[in-house]
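Sequence, structure tokens reproduced for absentees:
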Amino acid sequence: MVVGNPPFGKIIKKPDLLKTYRNLYENKKTTNIFSFFIEKALDLGEIVSLITPKSLLSIPELKKTRQLMESRLSEIIDYGESAFDVKIETISFITNLGKKKVKIISKILDKSFFLEENYLFDKKIPYWIIYRNEFFDEVLEKMTLGVF
């Protein structure tokens, strides 16, 4: 089991360190240190729980990191900006092998619900949309994706 709060931030001022991390881990596009912590944690433990910026869910450079987590993700907790005394939206996640549904806990809305893995990790959408619902899907059906 791995539990932690990895440092957030980019490693752009230390190119040698960034090169070392990129050689060790699968995500070769990221400069975010917490992405490398996630990969190391996934290597070390079956159950992993880390606090990360909410940007993990959506920024393009973390696509590979999200893909590495997909088969193991069991829970996401959304704290918004309320977890720490900073203006960064944060989430935590828990991994556990063999889950078919991902539990979403919203501290902002004070509710929880489950999303099927194939719905949360839908390949038509490049991000994890944890508040996806029928209304979102109705709007999505009317859109043309991949234009820009």
